[in-house]
Write a structure and sequence with these properties.
The protein is α+β, with helices and mostly antiparallel strands. About 45% of the residues lie in helices and about 10% in strands. The chain has a nine-stranded mixed sheet, sandwiched between helices. It has a two-stranded antiparallel sheet with strand order 8-9.
Length: about 475
């Protein structure tokens, strides 16, 4: 039902004409030290032929590769950074792959190196704030290994992945063909094992190996497929696309903390709206946000759905304008209408006042959110504050407006009010307009706004109660 929506989203076209190069078989090259084993399935191309030059690569990443080479190890710049450069994009980071074990990498770089990860051991080489991630070549799990090296659950998901191998085996373990690219500064060549350059040229996203098995090994690959489709304006090949709807429930096996990180990558990288439609289309959105599904309609036009789309559009615009993002604000907007519905239930059925109903409803909605995504406490506190400030924004007399504006999250709360006004209309439009004027007015103008507000909405008369007389014994 959502495929029709995905067509409505405008996507940024990527010029792939620069990838139209002749790819030469590695059979014609001479074997040298630190070169991959030659095979008919592997191809190499001079980096200059696809407009990749050493000056475009991270100096720190190149220094890591060169130092590993000097110590007798194979090492290459690998993966997404090459993919992005081939598409004319600026890479977010640069990764390195090597046949050196993590402990050997640490012995070479010593204090600069920090070993991280249990599921798959990695080495982080630190150059100030710049961190180069170094991964050891991985091998398949077909050969029996101890549980300290390799472990899978009954659904086929990899729980531990410290099985080391060769360059060939590492390429086979990569997820998508466009990520199985290796750059060697020694001969300025790119090793393209699974025709990733051809796939980039065609705009095709294709899994390496059997898609069902690869998704079972790591269900997050389904989310990565969606992210690359939206971000890189690519399409998923039929074999990789078909199993997703059926295997989507496997995401429930992923730790909520990891899903939280993945949700930010999906929704806060500049293509959030398009990503949302794709997630709905492939049945993945409900795996990330199951608590929102009861608030969706067949037509896709409920208040909750309209708020999600509006919020993601705004996020995409902020990223395009290089403005800062507040992750807590995104989740506050997503769950605003479920919160409102819960508040109304507590007020009508429980007889609670507005403030108590908001506090209790916030706890219940937050529990639902954190059950599927482990939202850090630093964000949950901000989300609650943004929600409760919606009550404060209703108070427009005396010193209430001044005190409300002094709150640290006032601006985020106002932005939520402005979004509500566009979606709900009615009284929220007048309220948002008033606060907009109040923010950008001087002291005299604010006093005039308060007087006008008091005139239009007079204070309720105070009730006076007679003191109860105490009877004397």
């Amino acid at each position: 039902m959502f495929s029709k929506h995905s067509k409505q989203v405008k996507s940024t076209k990527i010029d792939r004409s620069s990838l139209n190069v002749v790819v030469h078989s590695t059979k014609s090259t001479k074997a040298k030290t630190n070169k991959p084993v030659q095979s008919h399935k592997k191809y190499t191309v001079k980096a200059s032929q696809v407009n990749i030059h050493a000056r475009m690569l991270s100096k720190n990443a190149l220094s890591v590769v060169e130092k590993l080479n000097r110590h007798g190890y194979e090492a290459y710049i690998v993966g997404g950074c090459l993919r992005d450069l081939l598409l004319g994009k600026t890479p977010k980071d640069f990764d390195v792959a090597t046949n050196a074990r993590p402990e050997q990498v640490q012995a070479i770089f010593q204090r600069r190196c920090r070993l991280v990860g249990r599921r798959f051991r990695l080495a982080h080489i630190m150059f100030g704030r710049d961190i180069i991630e170094v991964a050891t070549f991985r091998a398949s799990h077909e050969v029996n290994h101890s549980e300290q090296q390799a472990k899978q659950n009954q659904d086929g998901m990899i729980l531990r992945d410290n099985v080391y191998g060769t360059l060939e085996q590492d390429a086979q373990r990569r997820d998508f063909t466009v990520n199985a690219l290796y750059y060697s500064p020694r001969d300025n060549s790119i090793y393209d094992f699974y025709h990733g350059i051809d796939d980039l040229k065609a705009g095709k996203l294709r899994l390496i190996g059997d898609p069902v098995t690869r998704y079972q090994e790591d269900p997050v690959r389904m989310l990565r497929a969606i992210r690359f489709m939206a971000k890189l304006d690519m399409f998923l090949d039929k074999a990789s696309e078909t199993p997703i709807v059926e295997l989507a429930p496997l995401l429930k096996n992923i730790p909520p903390a990891r899903l939280f990180d993945e949700s930010l990558k999906l929704l806060q990288t500049g293509s959030g709206e398009k990503t949302y439609y794709l997630l709905r289309q492939y049945g993945l959105f409900e795996q990330l946000f199951p608590a929102l599904i009861p608030y969706f309609t067949e037509q896709g036009d409920s208040l909750a759905e309209r708020m999600i789309i509006h919020s993601l559009k705004s996020t995409d615009e902020r990223i395009a304008d290089n403005l800062r993002l507040n992750s807590a604000f995104l989740f506050a907007t997503f769950f605003w209408y479920p919160l409102r519905e819960k508040v109304d239930i507590l007020k009508n059925e429980g007889g609670l006042n507005n403030h108590d109903a908001y506090a209790l409803a916030s706890n219940e909605i937050m529990d639902l959110l954190c059950h599927s995504l482990a939202v850090p406490r630093r964000h949950t506190g901000v989300i609650r504050e943004i929600w409760l400030l919606q009550l404060q924004l209703l108070k427009r007399s005396g010193r209430f407006p001044e005190r409300t504006m002094e709150q640290p999250k006032f601006r985020a709360a106002y932005d939520l009010l402005a979004m509500r006004a566009e979606i709900e209309g009615g009284e929220s439009i007048e309220l948002a307009k008033w606060w907009h004027e109040y923010q950008f007015s001087n002291a005299e103008q604010r006093i005039a706004l308060l007087k006008e507000q008091d005139k239009n909405a007079p204070k309720p008369k105070k009730r006076y109660y007679r003191k109860r007389s105490t009877k004397k014994d």
